[in-house]
Every structure is written in C-alpha cells, then in structure tokens.
Design brief:
This protein has ten helices and 13 strands. The chain is of the alpha/beta class. Helix 6 (194-206) runs parallel beside helix 8. The protein binds NADPH dihydro-nicotinamide-adenine-dinucleotide phosphate and guanosine-5'-diphosphate-rhamnose. NADPH dihydro-nicotinamide-adenine-dinucleotide phosphate is lined by residues 8-9, 11-15, 32, 34, 40, 64-66, 86-90, 105, 109, 129, 131, 181, 183-184, 190.
Length: 343
C-alpha cells in the first residue's frame, strides 16, 4: 500500500527536503501552499510532475493555517497516514515586529490543524515542528528534560504548539510527536537567516558585487546542522511504535564569528574587513547559546548527524558561489519552471 503524507510548509526549506525524501521512499505527497501573487514554489519546482500524468505523486493544495475549515476539508479529502506540520512564521526577529500574526500562524495554526485531524475523524500520525528556541535562556546543553524559557513571540507561540501537541497525544490517544530541532541550514535556507545571509554575501563580495555585510549580535552560539539530515530524523520519529518527543542537534556550538571565519575563510577572505554592525538586526531579548544533546534520538531512532557548522559553511558558500554564476536558478540546474495546476 502506498503511504500518503501531508506537509504544511512544503514550500519552505524543510518542506522541500522532506517532500524529496518521502517521494524517494515511494510516498504520495500532498502539500499545502499559500495563494500568492507570484509563484512561491521555487524550492519544489524540480519535483513537479504534471498532475494528469499517472506517475504524479506530488499534489499541491491551496490552504493556510489561519483557515480552519479548509484544513478540515483537506484532511478529510486526502486522508493522510502522516501529517507534518512545518508551516510557521519562522523568523525570530520578525516575530517581534509581527507578534500577533506569529501567534496566529505559529501557535494557533497548530491547534487548527490538530482539530482538523480530530474533526475529520482520520487515523494519522502527526509531527510538530518544535524548536530549540523553546529553551531560550536556559543554558546548554539542552535535551528533552531541560526546562523551557522562551525569549521571543516566536518561541512563545512554539511553546503553545509544543504543549497542545502533547495534550492531544494524551487526551485523544493521537500518535503526535514534537521534534525539538536545533538550527539546521542548507543552500535552500531563507536569505534572511544569518547563515544564508553570510554565505550569499561571501559569494557576492568575492564577485565584486557587494562591499559590506551588516549584521547584529556576533556573540551568540548556535548548534547548526544540515537540513536534509534533520528531515530524515522527522520521518524516523513517525516510524517507531511509541509517540514521544525528541531533540535533534549536532552537539557542537559555533558563534556567529566562527561561522563568519569558516565562510569567508573558505574563499580566502578576511571577514573583519567586510562585516559592519547594524542595531536593527538585534533582538529585544536574545538567545545566547543553544547546544543540543540528541542522545535520545541517536539511541532510539539511530539518527546520527554528520555535518557540523564548519562543513555546513563550506557547503553553503560553494552553493551560493555556483548560484551566483547562474543567477535566478539557485540550487538546481536545468529546471524548467512548471505551472502548477491547482485549480
Ligand atoms: P521556512 O520559513 O523556510 O518555511 C516556512 C513554511 O511555512 C513556508 O512554506 C511558508 O509558506 C509556510 N507558511 C508560513 N505561514 C503559513 C500559513 N499561515 N499557512 C500555511 N503555510 C504557511 O521554515 P523552515 O523550513 O526553516 O522550518 C520549518 C519549520 O520548522 C518551521 O515551523 C520552523 O519554525 C521550524 N523550525 C525550523 C528550524 C530551522 O533551523 N530551520 C529549527 C526548529 C524549528 P511560504 O513559502 O508561502 O512563505
Ligand atoms: P534563529 O536564526 O533566531 O536561531 O532561529 P537566525 O539565523 O535568524 O539567528 C541566529 C543568530 O544570529 C544572530 N544574528 C543575526 N540573525 C539574523 N537573522 N540576521 C542578522 O543580521 C544577524 N546578526 C546576528 C541572531 O541574533 C541570532 O542570535 C532559527 C529559525 O529557523 C527558527 O525558526 C528556529 O526555530 C531556530 O532557528 C531554531
């Protein structure tokens, strides 16, 4: 029997890698995308197969986590074996500018989806994209037993989603898990997250297209892993017998300065000549240090990350240098942009 999965946030970094992974495992994959005035499917265009083709196994549907009735309709119609809730307003700094919208999408959106699962009466397994931001001000190392101390509207919204996912597991016997994932990056990372902002700048500075790179706090420490390995971990969490929560992390911390050193150094540049400070990139409350202990996932899921922050910097710089050489066609060569037929 072909398994069916539904991914919210399929157009994001993780959604695109997860769709690839599930398709490679033979799944039929359904994704929810938001209606926009321009195409927002660049990360998944290379997966496109004309839906009229009998080989098509990827299907997109318009929807939004702010629209609960639409979610009920879609869940009843698709009847997925697995639901991955990856959609969110996922930018921590932006959550201070748009706290209410962040609460609505990143927090309340989860209860709308869980209610849609319940009301549609389907039997499914549910993955919630929880975050190391939950730990916030609690010092590392952080694992599943570390107390939470959120430091942003984003983290507070994710905290609600974490607990409501756990509550639905206990209240309704739903197979629901929280993946508490530490930062994970890739050449598909959004351009305003610090790693990608840095690696894009390295490519542009090296090509003579940019002189300065404006950043905020360079002292914070993050545990950066490689996104394709993390979506594999998400999938594994839904394949075991018992639903429980897991941390995914490399266990190695790097400061922003370390990442600058690795990225600029990879092409023989000295970052100190180019990086300038702009206070607009500071957060009213910062998360100083996140370094995860993923022993539980390693032992129970056999999940082992292989790419650390320094290796990641090299992967991302190489991809951005190449992307610049064929501007407009980022991470995939030779993709003819399809016109998705949704309606
Ligand atoms: P992205 O920001 O790249 O992707 C977010 C996705 O959510 C996009 O597909 C976006 O659609 C969609 N989305 C946003 N708002 C809505 C909405 N109201 N309704 C439906 N879809 C919406 O995030 P990542 O792929 O990096 O992360 C995936 C998830 O994991 C997120 O929930 C994030 O908070 C969480 N997370 C991420 C970590 C990381 O390091 N990457 C670490 C821990 C947790 P569109 O393309 O239209 O904007
Ligand atoms: P984060 O990622 O907040 O950890 O959330 P981000 O890359 O935005 O920031 C990491 C650290 O870098 C510092 N920083 C800057 N950040 C940005 N974006 N831009 C800058 O110019 C800049 N200068 C310094 C930040 O202050 C911070 O300390 C990510 C998201 O993917 C969340 O959705 C996810 O939950 C967490 O990772 C785990």
């Amino acid at each position: 029997m072909t398994k069916r999965a539904l991914i919210t946030g399929i157009t994001g970094q993780d959604g695109s890698y997860l769709a690839e992974l599930l398709l490679s495992k033979g799944y039929e994959v359904h994704g929810i995308i938001r209606r926009a005035s321009t195409f927002n499917t660049a990360r998944i265009d290379h997966l496109y197969v004309d839906p009229h083709d009998e080989d098509a196994r990827l299907f997109l549907h318009y929807g939004d986590l702010s629209d609960g009735t639409r979610l009920v309709t879609l869940l009843a119609q698709i009847d997925p074996d697995e639901v991955y809730n990856l959609a969110a307003q996922s930018h921590v700094r932006v959550s201070f500018d748009e706290p209410e919208h962040t609460a609505d999408t990143t927090g309340t959106g989860t209860i709308r989806l869980l209610e849609a699962v319940r009301l549609s009466g389907i039997k499914t397994r549910f993955y919630q994209a929880s975050s190391s931001e939950l730990f916030g001000a609690t010092p590392p190392p952080q694992n599943e037993n570390t107390p939470f101390y959120p430091r942003s509207p984003y983290a507070a919204a994710k905290l609600y989603s974490y607990w409501i996912t756990k509550n639905y597991r206990e209240a309704y016997d739903l197979f629901a898990v929280n993946g508490i994932l530490f930062n994970h990056e890739s050449p598909r990372r959004g351009e305003t997250f610090v790693t990608r902002k840095i690696t894009r700048a390295v490519a542009r500075i090296q090509a003579g297209l940019q002189n300065d790179l404006y950043l905020g706090n360079l002292e914070s420490i993050r545990d950066w892993g490689y996104a394709p390995e993390y979506v594999e971990g998400m999938w594994r969490m839904l394949q075991v017998d018992e639903p429980t929560d897991y941390v995914l992390a490399t266990g190695v911390g790097y400061s922003i300065k370390d990442f600058l050193e690795a990225s600029f150094g990879h092409v023989g540049l000295d970052w100190q000549k180019y990086v300038k400070f702009d206070e607009r990139y500071l957060r009213p409350t910062e998360v100083d240090a996140l370094i995860g202990d993923s022993s539980k996932a390693r032992e129970r899921l056999g999940w082992t990350p292989t790419v650390d922050g320094a290796a990641l910097a090299r992967i991302m710089v190489d991809a951005d240098v190449e992307a610049l050489a064929c501007e407009g066609r980022p991470w995939i060569d030779s993709v003819a942009v399809p016109s998705w037929e949704l309606v």
